[in-house]
Amino acid sequence: MTAAPAPPTSVSALKNDRFLRALRRESVDRTPVWLMRQAGRYLPEYRATRAAAGSFLAMAKNPELACEVTLQPLRRFPLDAAILFSDILTVPDAMGLGLYFVEGEGPKFERPVRSAADIARLAVPDMETELRYVMDAVRTIRRELDNTVPLIGFSGSPWTLACYMIEGGGSDNYSKVKSLALNEPAAMHRLLEVVTDAVIAYLNAQRLAGAQALQVFDTWGGVLSPAMYREFSLRYLNRIAQELPRGDGDNSAPLILFGKGNGAYLEELAASGAEGVGVDWTVELGDAARRTGGRVAIQGNLDPVTLYAQPEAIRREVGRALDSYAAGNGGSREGHVFNLGHGMSPDMSPDHVAALVAAVHELSAR
Ligand code: CP3
Question: What pTM did the predictor assign?
Fold first, then answer.
């Protein structure tokens, strides 16, 4: 496989720049919309590509196939951004933990982090060798998108990656990772420091390969008490927001901090230096807009389960979310990126996604 050449990046040449304009809180003709996990098993064409590739990881590690599944939802729906098809667990995999998937059980690591000695061995992987397949996917997708919509790159948050690295997979109560944080906070901070260094290098490499916005998924920040959230998650989100270069001109990429269960911390997240904050559906969007006072763009936040309801109900809930945001933002829809409050599920209907995207664009037309 040959790496695609660096794309001729020109933000000004983007045919649809609503998403990037909204992140800068500039005026747009309609509220932009993209959906977390917009590429995935709910699309029959995704299931076909995955079956031909043999597995999720084979697909994610092949830049052409990763590009193909990235583009699939954009062929069906007028989404305002593409998101790199990959996974947050590529980084710990490249750190030597051995990522694999068990059908129906989700991600697992062959060599989870269990001791101070394991932590001492962790190092930042090289982005253009060990994670080359991700950067090649970004370059290939940028070439194929041909400046139609911007491409979002992403990473897990340090805390969320630590959860998988220490638990060795998904978890019901996060007992191992929380015990390490409570029993050996210095060791936990050493792990979070090196993972944060890796996240910053990973996001920066994606930007240099052509990603035009970057999102950090703090999926499990919300399982922490407030004191532990501030110590073990927010501290490292702040480091990323402060230290990650955003570039300039054609190579620039704003940063969005998404967190499930982050509603109690919106003022602090808005003060982090990130350009956008993503929220789940337990937050009233108008409150989010009021509490962050124009310091950041707000992304969200329809309950993903709304997609199981009928199109009329989806449309009504989309309208409610749009209007809630505007009510808290001085009557203006500016600075809002529409999304779900978390990712899509495999048994959702593509027709209902079409209804959602159409409702966002129609009900927000200026
Ligand atoms: O949004 C997109 O379309 C981009 C692709 C994307 C994937 N994973 C593809 C994927 C993104 C942004 C992720 C991030 C990710 N991965 C997160 C953070 C986002 C979130 O949902 O909170 C997390 C926690 C993971 C870890 C992970 N990877 C899980 C829990 C799973 C699901 C396992 C399962 O069986 O459903 C994965 C695998 C995965 N990543 C799939 C997809 C489409 C399903 C793979 C398949 O079976 O085809």
Answer: 0.96
- Residue 348 vs residues 104, 112, 158, 205, 305: alpha-carbon distances, Å: 17, 32, 30, 33, 9
CA distance 335 to 355: 23
Q: From the CB of residue 312, how many other CB atoms can be counted at a distance below 10 Å?
A: 10
3 state DSSP class of 353: helix
Torsion angle (degrees, nearest 10) of CA 16, 18, 20, 23 = -170
Helix (H, G, I), strand (E, B) or coil at 36: coil
Given a contact cutoff of 8 angstroms between Cβ atoms, the answer to whether 154 and 18 are in contact is: no
Name the amino acid, one letter, at 105.
E
Q: Tokens 């995935």 identify what position?
A: 40
What does R_g of the chain's alpha carbons equal in angstroms? 19
Bridge partner list, 152: 83, 213
| Contact of 31 with 358, CB cutoff 8 Å | no
The reply to whether 41 sits in an annotated binding site is yes
CA 131, CA 36: separation in Å to the nearest integer? 22
- In ligand 1, the atom with minimum distance to the C-alpha of 160 is 24
Q: Where are the alpha helices (DSSP H) in 146-245?
A: 158-167, 175-183, 185-209, 226-228, 235-243
55 lines ligand 1 (CB under 6 A): no
Give the CB-side neighbour count of residue 65, counting CA atoms within 13 A.
21
Question: Is residue 38 part of an annotated ligand binding site?
Answer: yes
Q: Is the CB of 169 under 6 A from ligand 1?
A: no
Mutate-to-test residue for ligand 1 from 35, 69, 88, 159, highest number of ligand atoms within 8 A of CB: 88
pLDDT tens for residues 143-200? 999 999 999 999 999 999 999 999 999 999 999 999 999 999 999 999 999 999 999 9
Query: Could you give the ipTM of this predicted complex?
Result: 0.92
Any atom of ligand 1 within 6 Å of the Cβ of 40: yes
